[in-house]
User: What shape does this take?
Amino acid sequence: MKNKAYAVLACLVCLLFASSSFADQPLDWQMTLQPAATSIMHEIRWFEQYTLWFIVPVTLFVLLLLIIVVVKFRAGANPVPSKTSHNTAIEVVWTVGPVLLLLFLAIPSFNLLTAQLTIPENPDLTLKATATQWQWNYEYEMETPVAFDSYLLKDADRAGLGKEDKSVYPRLLAVDNEMVLPVNKVVRLLVTAAPTDVIHAFAMPSFGVKIDAVPGRLNETWFKPEREGLFYGQCSELCGKDHAFMPIAIRVVSQEKYDAWIAAAGTDLAGANKTLMAATDGKKSVDVAANDAQ
Assistant: This one.
């Protein structure tokens, strides 16, 4: 009886923590950026907090000035308006002040932009993401190329793919085939759109990545995932009637799991995905605990 109680407790812990922390995705009433999974996103989150130290005081100061103007210089309190048209001190302050504020914002923003646009010379992995209306195609550049399409996961296909847990595979964000990457490896991503298509955009919030996919043009970006998990993004360029149904999903796993997946994905993608899911999904630990309880 005691063992069963511990097993049930383990099930509850897994249900509470495994599925919610396993996948990075938007949350209801979320006011902050998604948790960082790359060094670039850590810098973006820092810069967002840093700018608030300027934005909030400036906003409050302007609000205070507006209240003073409304109260002190209204017609009832100031029937004879001043004819002052020039004040050197005020003009110096409102010129120099914004320049200094912009300088404090510009230096860290330029550093962040440089880090984003400087592609590492020797990436561990190079992928190509091609957008079409309305799905993504991923190509792994290696001796035996691996390529597959990634479509929005339909509710009718959830059971067959083993993706019924909507806390891990959320509606309108989950896909049938995720991009799979090894953790702590530098990934160079080439992004484009089909020659006869429209402009799309590859955006992954937890990675701090957003880059246009332009027909006939090859853009590139990079990232280095620092933790394992399932990460969700979307096409962030208005690309047609199904723009809202073009999600991006990236599964980051250990090097060993990635090697096993890439070896099998070339000949049996569905089987490789199911094997990888069985080894990574938090739900599996709940099933094991439930079986032990029985």
